[in-house]
């Protein structure tokens, strides 16, 4: 299988401004002439969205951590087979709101599941496929929770305590330290225009690196 499109993911904690920034990234890529498929995890397919409801809803509050991890990867397997890989093969760029880094940060660092377990699932479900570029929208947990606090009814993750989100943030930053080429950290604490300046520079730098 030849993958011709590029796979870009966006990660971040609660209240990091993913939604508005994802739309901005899509517009930058389209302005550069790329055909972009925007999608999200968990979700992205009818089955994936049904799994998302199980994961984020409050029907199964006592869900075991392993079950949570396996459901994330079940949704991901479906997403890859049905949507992401076919798009990439056709030369479409895929922009995804969260991907496997979220499993390492939330289920690994947040819940305390072993990284070895997650790495095995990553290999099983994705083979060698990894995002080409990941933007990590980073900001202090307290600021993020304050921003997210104004929104509607919290989902099953949003109900976690602050120390959970501290571990998630540290987990993400650890991945960024280990893979600085792929994972670019964006400081999401200033006002939106300053955040978008950083995003724009990162995307343009990436696009230029492909022309070299
Ligand atoms: P969001 O897309 O609105 O941020 O909600 C998705 C939630 O799911 C978010 O709290 C992070 C969580 N999540 C995981 O815990 N593991 C994963 O692998 C993914 C993709 C998301």
UniProtKB/TrEMBL annotation:
Known role: Phosphorylation of dTMP to form dTDP in both de novo and salvage pathways of dTTP synthesis.
GO molecular function annotation: ATP binding; dTMP kinase activity
This enzyme's EC code(s): 2.7.4.9
Gene3D superfamilies membership: P-loop containing nucleotide triphosphate hydrolases
Organism field: Candidatus Thiodiazotropha taylori
Official protein name in the record: Thymidylate kinase
GO CC entries: cytosol
Catalysed reactions listed for this entry: dTMP + ATP = dTDP + ADP
Keyword Nucleotide-binding among record annotations: yes
Biological process annotations from GO: dTDP biosynthetic process; dTTP biosynthetic process; dUDP biosynthetic process
PANTHER family: THYMIDYLATE KINASE (PTHR10344), UMP-CMP KINASE 2, MITOCHONDRIAL (PTHR10344:SF4)
HAMAP family the record matches: Thymidylate_kinase
Domain Thymidylate kinase-like: 10-199
Family: Belongs to the thymidylate kinase family.
CDD domains tied to this protein: TMPK
Residues engaged in binding ATP: 12-19
UniProt keyword terms in alphabetical order: ATP-binding, Kinase, Nucleotide biosynthesis, Nucleotide-binding, Transferase
Keyword rRNA processing assigned: no
